[in-house]
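Recall the central idea of this unit: under ordinary conditions, the amino acid sequence of a chain determines the structure it adopts. In this exercise we apply that idea directly, starting from the sequence alone.
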Amino acid sequence: MYANILPILCCPQCGAGFRLTESRMEQDEIVEGKIVCGNGHAFSIREGILDFQSQEQDALNTWTEYIDKDGYDAFDQKLEAQKSDSQRKIEKDFLDGIVEEAAKLKSGFLLDVASGRGVLLRELLKNADENVDIISTDLSFHILRYDRIRFRQINPHVKVNYIACDATNLPLRERSIDMACTYVGFTNMADLMEKGIRDAARVLKDDAPLINSSVFMDENAEGAKRAAKFLAENHMEGGEKTYIRNELLAIHKAYFSTVREKIIYEGIAEGVEGDLIPCPGEWFANVVLIAR
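Accordingly, the structure predicted from this sequence is:
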């Protein structure tokens, strides 16, 4: 964590600002310490990560379980090995579409929502202006710990603040962020997606964009129905809105004045083990939505 983020932080429990009460530095990064809000709520900085003690999802993206089982590098390689060459090309084009929009920010705070394995963060770092400060957030302290170690040399001129927190209740002040983006992070939130989009709108400055990447599917297709059933069975009713175009657009329009769609790819999906969507053998589209 870097000290310049302190003025834009706010307590997720009460909304008060924070002060730094303990710190151990390495160069200009705070690697160990504590912040305390005006009402006494305290949170730790551990291994360079500001930890709000958020809990991982039970049914989706339980990173700690996966990493503890296989080890980070082996787990990462396993996921990549499951993809075909065409799937890798589709993913690269999807990431390029997000980064193309994110690269328009020349200074200020760039928020990466639900960074996960850092698939988008890696590309943001390659392309970010040195006057941009990145805030990488995820529910999992564990995954951010590995991301920080892996990515610190990609672009040493760009500061990355890693925050383990709930993206539906970001520890950031209203209108403090210059741009927010995600690589299917809101999609992975399932039934909590709207809360995540609403909170992103809260922290973004006036006219600052949210760059949301999503997957559209035909809600009447059998695979989409199976996905909806899975979500309902795991107490995530309504999570299917994440891949239904009209539903997703309506949610964005509830919190933003304009929404622009950029179709990156559409076609028939191949299967990837562990992915709920898109569904193998059915139509899907990778879409970047730019909301202001």
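Residues 33 and 45 are 5 Å apart (CA to CA).
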